[in-house]
Every structure is written in C-alpha cells, then in structure tokens.
Amino acid sequence: MSLDSVKAFFARNAPDINVIELQQSTATVALAAEGHGVEPAQIAKTLALRVGDDVILIVTRGDARLDNKKYKARFGAKARMLGLDEVEAETGHPVGGVCPFGLVRPHSVYCDESLKAFDLVVPAAGAVNAAVHINPHRMAALIGAEWIDVSEI
Fold first, then answer.
1. Phi and psi (nearest 5°) for 41?
2. Closest CA to 49 of 80, 74, 76, 78
C-alpha cells in the first residue's frame, strides 16, 4: 500500500519520475547509496519527529545529523523522534522506506539546506527497496516543503 501511494503521488504530480525498485534492501543510508550508485550524502533520509502534538518530517542528506541547537532554535523544543511503532501509523510508510511522498495523512515537511549541495538526491519511496532520483529543489516544490537549516555534517 505504501509503495502504491508513492507511485500514485508521482503519477499525479510528476509522471516523468519513476519509482525504482531494487531486489535488495535499501533501508539504510549505506545500503541505499550502494544500491543506487551514489555517495551516502546523496541519500535523502526522512526523519519523523514530534513537535508538541504535531508530527513533522525533515528530509536531510544521508551523512548529516540533526544539530540540537539549530533544531531547538527553529522549533522551540528538543528533537523527539517518533517511536518505531508510530512511524508507519503517522506516515503510512515502513521504517527504512519513510519518505515525504504519498503520506497517509498530511504533515509539515521541511528540507534541510544541506540537500542543496547536490543536483540529484535519492529519497526512499515507501518501501525498504524503493527510491526515486530527484533534484532536491524539485522535491521540495513537489511536497511543499520549507527549506530550513537544522543539520550538522
């Protein structure tokens, strides 16, 4: 279902982008980079966090970590990752396939400025073996994301 919702998202919004399904798992940054022949930094990982009563998604480069000071300055709270059991319920996607496309319910989505270093990034696509190749600016436009600076490399 999750993979289908991502494919439907691209069919409606960007039919020129194909969801790539590999035979092997791409559930980690290292596996995804190897499977897609890119640097780990080009993997666009999606983090699901809770801010008060809301869930937000932050898409950042694969080799980045959240900078707690920057995050707290932007959101007024300490970063709280969703529990594994909450991720699929909130996004519709399994851990390892979480992405900002085809979400089960709307959430605020943010793209970290670190993604702008690349012409092509590789976010997951709703399954542990699926992804898309996309320009980060186009990705942000398609998902209505706000650009923010909350990571450290």
1. -60, -25
2. 80
Say if residues 33 and 45 touch (Cβ distance below 8 Å): no
Rounded CA-CA distance 100/144 in Å is 10
* pLDDT tens string 48-74: 999 999 999 999 999 999 999 999 999
pTM above 0.70, yes or no: yes
- Residue 55: beta bridge partners? 50
Instruction: Show the CA angle centred on residue 112, arms to residues 11 and 121, nearest 5°.
Output: 45
Beta-sheet pairing, 108-112 with 54-61: parallel
Residue 13 CA, distance from chain mean position: 17
Beta bridge partners of 81: 49
Query: What gap in Å lies between CA 127 and CA 81, rounded to an integer?
Result: 20
DSSP strand E in 24-136: where?
43-51, 54-61, 65-66, 108-112, 122-123, 130-131
